[in-house]
Structures are given as C-alpha cells and as structure tokens.
UniProtKB/TrEMBL annotation, chain A:
Catalytic activity: S-ubiquitinyl-[E2 ubiquitin-conjugating enzyme]-L-cysteine + [acceptor protein]-L-lysine = [E2 ubiquitin-conjugating enzyme]-L-cysteine + N(6)-ubiquitinyl-[acceptor protein]-L-lysine
Domain SAP per the UniProt entry, residue ranges: 296-330
GO biological process: DNA damage tolerance; DNA repair; protein monoubiquitination
Name of the molecule in the record: Postreplication repair E3 ubiquitin-protein ligase RAD18
Organism: Wolfiporia cocos (strain MD-104) (Brown rot fungus)
Matching SMART domains: RING, SAP, ZnF_Rad18
UniProtKB/TrEMBL annotation, chain B:
Name listed for the protein in its UniProt record: E2 ubiquitin-conjugating enzyme
Coiled coil: none
EC numbers: 2.3.2.23
Molecular function via GO: ATP binding; ubiquitin conjugating enzyme activity
InterPro entries: Ub_conjugating_enzyme, UBC, UBQ-conjugating_AS, UBQ-conjugating_enzyme/RWD
Amino acid sequence: MVATDLQSLLDAPDAHDPTDFPPQDVAPGLRLLDDSLRCSVCRDFYDAPMSINCGHSFCSLCIRQALDAKQECPSCRQPATEAHLRKNTAAESAVKAWSESREFILRLSKAEERRHVGDLPAANGSSGHEDSEQRPRKRQRTLSEEDSDAEVEYLGGTSPYFSSRGSATNSHIRAQETGLPSKSQSQSDSPLSEHRSPNSSSVVECPLCQRRVPLESINQHIDSGCTLTPSAGGPSSSRPHASRAGSRDKDKQKAQWTKLFDGGSGAAPPSRRSKEKQKERASEAGEAEYLPKVAYATLKDRRLQEMLAEHGLPTAGDRAAWERRHQKWVTLYNANADRAPADQQSPAQLKRALKRWEDGLRAANARRAAADVDAGAHQRANSAAFRELVEAARPKKAAGTGREGRAGEDGRETTGMQDNSLIIVQRTLDVRKHNLED
Amino acid sequence: MNSRSGNATALRRLMTEYKQLTSQGAPDGMFTAGPVSEDDFFQWEALIMGPKDTPFEGGVFPARLTFPSDYPLSPFKMRFDPPLFHPNIYPDGTVCISILHAPGDDPTMYESASERWSPVQSVEKVILSVISMLAEPNLESGANIDCCKLYRDNRAEYERIVRQSIQEQLGL
Ligand SMILES: [Zn+2]
Ligand SMILES: [Zn+2]
Ligand SMILES: [Zn+2]
C-alpha cells in the first residue's frame, strides 16, 4: 500500500498559510497581511467575500453555511441573517492581486530573511533562524510542479487560485535560482529525500479518495474535491479500493450521477465540453439570480422530487437525503452567484461539487465505522508511545522537583518537554504506520 | 475553482491548522497536537502539559480529538485517554466544556451562548480553554459528580488524588 506521508502533504507547495512568510521581526506585517485576506472559517483566501452587518467578512459559501447552522456572526456573534450579506468587492480584488503577487513577495522576503540571518550571529536561537534554515530546502520540492500542472485535467474549471498557487512561471524561476534542472529531475534526488520515510515517494495517497496523486498537486487535488486528477499516476491512479461500503443504494445513486454528468454532454471530447461550459456560464452570468430558501417541512414528497428534477438533481435516497441535497444545492448555487462573473462555475460544476459533498458524507460514515474497529490498535500504539514520553519526562522531573516558581528555568523546561513530545508524536505516527502495514 | 464543500473544506482547514501549529508551536509549549495517522486527518492526538501551580503540574496528558466531516461548522470531540480525574471531565475521559458545544446544545443549561463553539474557533483555542479549565474547574457544568463533590467539600483530598495519579503515570 502507498503510505501518505503526513509531512509530505503539509510540505506540498500549495498548502499555504501565513507562516510561510518570515516572522514579524524580519518581514513586518507580511504574515498579518496574508492572514487578513483569509476567511476565518476556512482559513483560505476569500472566495466571493461577503460582509455582514457587524463588518466581518467571510467567503460566501462559508458564511451561508454558518448562517444555516446559527444566525449569528461566527466571529463576534452579533445576530445576522442572509439578508445582511453584501458583496465585499474591495476584499475580492485585494485577494486577486495578492494571489498574483504572493509568490513574488514570498521569494523577496525569503531572500531578505537569509540576509538577515547572515547579518546576525547564529547564537540567538530565534524561530526566524530555524525557519530560514528549512524553508529554502522546502521550496526545492516545487521543482516538478510544472510537469504536474501541465498534465492535470482541470475538471473543476480554471481558477485564479490554482494559477497563483502552483504557478508554472515561478517554478521556472525557482529552478534557475537553485541551479537545478527543472524537468525530469526525479524527486528522490532532491536533498529532501533524507527527510522522507523510506517507503514514501513523490506520489502520495489522497486521504480522501485513496487515489495516488503526485505530491505537488495533492492540495489542488483535495481542493478540487478529488476531481482534479493528474494523468501522471499511471495505471494505478484509478482507485485501488474504491468503495468499501458498496450498498445498492449507493450504486444506484452513482448511476444517477453518472448519467447526469455524462449522459448529456459527457461523450463530447474535452475541448467541446469546455466550450459548452463557457456557454453555460455566460448565460448564467447575465442574471445573477438567487434561489429562495425552502421550508421543507411543508412540502409533499412529490413536490420535493419535482424541485430536485427542476434543477436536474437525482432523487436517489430517502426523504432526508432529498432535503439535504436540495438545501445544499441552494447554498452552493447562491454562493456561486456571489462570485465575480468571470469566476462563476457552470451548473455542471456545481453539481459535481454537490456530489463530492454527498460522497464526503458517506466517506465520513465509513470512517466512523472503521474507527471503531481500529480503536484497539490505536490504544496499543498509544500506550507504547506514552511510555516513552513518560521516560523522557522522568529525568527532568527528578532534576527540577524543587517546584517553586523559578520562572526562567521552568520556561525552558517546558520547551524542552515540547520537543520531546514532538518526537514522541512523530514516533507514535511511525508505530501506527507500522501497525497499518502489517 | 477550488471546491469548498464537504470533506475537502474540513481537510484543508485541518491541514492548515496543523501546519500552523507545527511551524509556530503552541504558546509556551503547553501542548502539541496532530493527526494520529496520515490516513485519517480527522483523528488527532494531543499531548497537554499540566498547567503550572495546579495539581496537574508535571503531568503530560494525551487526548483524542475527533473531527466531524463538516468541521469547522460543527465542533470536534475531545477525550482524555486515559481519563483525567476532574470535575468537568466525564469518567470516560470526554471533556465537557462550553467551547466544544454547538450553539443550541447545552447539556448543562448553564453555559452562556458567547462561550460556545463557532466556526472561527480552532484546536489551539479549544486546548487553551481546556488548559485553563484544568486550572479552574467549573462546578456549574460538572461532568463527574463525585469529583465535583470532592472538589467542593475536600479540596486537599481532590488535589492529593490528582497528584497521585500523575505520579503513577510517571512511574514515580
Ligand atoms: Zn471561507
Ligand atoms: Zn462579526
Ligand atoms: Zn482525493
């Protein structure tokens, strides 16, 4: 089996967050800037940002879903409803500009950080110093990005995020910078290989769909809800153990969904397909209309089925499934209408998103069932790791049992402790991996 | 365009939280947290240091975090394993704290809505709340009744039991 290496997933070039930038003392405000353009619900850059009455902003989809659960601002808890939603076009254009400039600023700030570190005596163990030791190596991992980008099939449509996150131009620049050839350089030759566990490679198994995906595109793949699958994976890139819980209902649903996606335009070659997509999108962009919310309790089964059919949605499953499906559809549809016309998705793309969501629900149920079975194995692995941690804690405890508040020493002691536990956590992971492979 | 639906959103957000936790570290190194295995980002393990100047000082407490597929819309669950003897921790180790309760579901009826879960909360914020709960139990939302009584009526004995359990854990 292919192990998904946790660290590889996190190091993938497009798993981005504010701490990619040097800390405040090296690059004042950059982490804050990056953070300020992110939705505090999903922690990603704003997608169709909307403000509510209190002034807080969120992605349209994030806030619509949050308001479905509770009619208040997730940040400050002031009462709010969908009627309060207003497009935040300033944030939208700021995100666009930042997405385009982020790689560039990141490179400049890293160069500055290296200079900064060079100026200072290495003695002060600031976090900034550690960062700069590791980051440049990390970035070399993005070398083969270009290949994977080129081979990826953009089922989900083009996105301004994708182009900025995994920019081919930038990998060129990086390649020149590091003096390594950009293509055909195998990952295992990179200096990073020493960090990897022996059985990992540049291909990781997606934790959602179990397909094998090149490391460089794993986050794009996940973001796309597992639709964006690179052709690089070879024959094994088709799902190895696709459906464990293969109920009849599920098969029926699958058939319905397949018909929806492939029945009409599915047989068409990719080029024609994308043209159709554009046409669909254009026709929709003109109106920017919203779907009304529905009080499902008052609806007869028949009417609900009709409503699903009106939007070309399947009627598989029970009544609860219909309601879930329709409600989610309304939310996805309205959030999409909040996007800038150029960024809007076609109804077919929205339907795929809806299907992915339903698949996700099913996967979560399967996971819950599997987790119960695994509980025993977990406990065994856990107790082993814990014994080690206790061993690590013991001498410290013995040394510093004087326990009255000598603040400085205590502080250091805790930090030492943390390092130990990090190691233990890492070992725990190793132990578990071992167990799983047995 | 990236999908923000279902699992993908939850997974992405969990990865971001984990990445930030590992690159920045917890305040004062008070805890660590991360996925139990690379196959399942929805099960985490946390190791929490007992806060200073409390009977829990010196202990290291492992806890299981279980995330729902609609995280962060719904909160995760947190269970100390092995269980801790504490007024707000159920005998099976499950933590009872308002920040982990979705709005509208309040098993104790004493929590103010302003302390509940909201999608902008995070693993870090919750664990920091749990650490302050270790230091200051909240008897109004008790989860372990015997422990609540003991804490209220015989504080010294409560502290002795907690300290002793930590010593046993450390094998001292
Ligand atoms: Zn968001
Ligand atoms: Zn607000
Ligand atoms: Zn996937």
